[in-house]
Amino acid sequence: MKVYNDQKRSLARMIVSFVYLWITLCSLLMFTACDKQDRETTVKFYLTDAPSLQGYKAVFIDIQEVSYSLDGVGWMQLPITPGNYNLMELTNGNDTLLSKVVLNEGERIQQMRLKLGPENKLVLSDNTIVGLDTPSGQTSGIKINIHDSAAVYSSYSVVIDFNAEKSIVRKGNSGGYLLKPVIRGFIRENTSLLFGNLLPLKVPFYVSSIHGVDTMTCVSDTSRNNLFVLQGLYTGTWKVMFKDQSGNPLNSINVDIVGGFNKDLGVIDLSH
User: Fold this and answer.
1) Which residue, of 103, 153, 203, 248, has the fewest CB within 10 Å?
2) Please, are residues 104 and 40 in contact by the beta-carbon 8 Å criterion?
3) Among candidate residues 110, 105, 99, 64, the one with its CA nearest the CA of residue 84
């Protein structure tokens, strides 16, 4: 009987030891997984556009590849859905998610590269569809510098801001249109939105923000209470200028921006 009880006690101790070992291993694995997750950063990539007063109904950009570089030398391709993206649907604060990746904490994206296909098209105000001739150098890859580093340790967003109005150039007397992409990139979490509404409501205006050599321009949207949105503004005092459709200055104000905090200018009356 004593031997039997000793065997039972030994078995019980073995079971307890096994359970303790199992709990320890599980805790270690969970700690390792959490620690690894804490050391990773999710980066999302968005495409947006500045509005236009040229009367285009649609601007379709044939995006085939998007890649990024951490050092300006090596390039990693993003998983995207290739095809035509209508820039006219991505104005005044609207955007679309192109892709996302997970990086190690501390890794910073320095450059982006956009590769376009041949199916770039423009829909004019009379619904005529014309092709956009794209120089061969642009189809091999448009490099976009990301000048700032994310001042965050969790996820952040890289915005590819495609300026359709400045990118589309009419060919002299021969007719037709060229696509010469004007694009900038910025990290959303480091920058601010500057927005407001303009009066009269049914009249579109140009709005520009100027700080040193940096100038951002947009067009107010009469279908959204004449809303204007300027994106990617860094900390500093910006001069905000309002112009009519012919480019004549109407008014200007100075606005202090703190990166990461959006600024609402409310309703501004330009009728006087």
Assistant:
1) 248
2) yes
3) 64
pLDDT along the chain (272 residues), means of 10: 52 55 55 54 90 82 93 89 91 88 86 91 91 72 79 77 88 81 89 94 93 87 92 93 93 94 95 82
CA 254, chain centre distance (Å): 26
Q: What is the model's pLDDT at position 203?
A: 93
pLDDT tens-digit readout, 151-185: 555 688 999 998 888 899 888 776 789 998 889 89
Tokens matching residue 162: 């495609």
Q: Where are the alpha helices (DSSP H) in the chain?
A: 2-38, 136-139, 164-167
Query: CA end-to-end span of the chain, whole Å?
Result: 106
CA distance 124 to 72: 38
Ramachandran class of 78: left when φ > 0, alpha when ψ lies in -120 to 50, beta otherwise: beta
Least Cα distance to 269 among 195, 220, 205, 199 occurs for 199
Which residues lie across from 104 on neighbouring strands? Answer: 40
